[in-house]
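Extended Data, panel c. Modelled sequence:
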Amino acid sequence: MLVFALTLYSCSESEMFDNDEVGNLVLKLSNDDSINNGSGIIVRSNDETDISQYLVTIRQNNVVRLSQKYNTLTSENLFFKAGANYYASAQNCDDTEAENDNNLWGRPRYFGESESFDIVKSKETSVEINCSMINSKASVSFDSSMAESFSDYKITLYNNDNRKLVFDSNSTVSSPIAYFNVGENMDITYLIEATGKSSQQERRIEGTVKNNLPAKWIKISVKTTPSGSVSVNAVSIDNTVDDNQNNSTIDPY
């Protein structure tokens, strides 16, 4: 768990109020930088969970009072004009970057926002922002049985933003991870296209992974049996199995 307690200066001589009308804000930022993979805790060290790179925003109602990356802020006190309805938030990227970065494969998005708080004249206010992953990720692996029945195969993942990501027959659990924003009507659709070895006929099968939720890891494993059964499993980031298993049939002959 990364935790930073910091006090930062935000006022200047150009502020149109006297110093005795301000209060001091102390921020504590935290972020869980570990993930349970089912066999133990792995501590991750990467830019996504490095709080020093997060954008910190302080707003009062809908007015932004400060918006600046943590590592560019000074180490002095945060002073703001006394008043109500302040909020503090932090994030590593916005929702557009979360899907468009890394050649459209996206990136994990961490975000946190405090409860509403007041700045009280001549007093210190402590506020904590706890950041967590708010988008989902999906990975694909093909079982070796697919190569026995099909000469070529791939799976395409997409949602209602028309971004389409293709995993080909070489995809494994170590292949690129796809990240998806979550929200209403943001289910992930998959399209499997495969060409039978014997028939050379292209077969297509489409399905939907429901419950696209924050911090959900959707592991899609594609395999076939002599009858052509295909399974899709949604597994949460803490390795608990969802009831979202889809079994479909695709005829290789």
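Confidence is low (pLDDT under 50) at residues 1-17, 34-45, 234-245. This feature is highlighted in the accompanying rendering.
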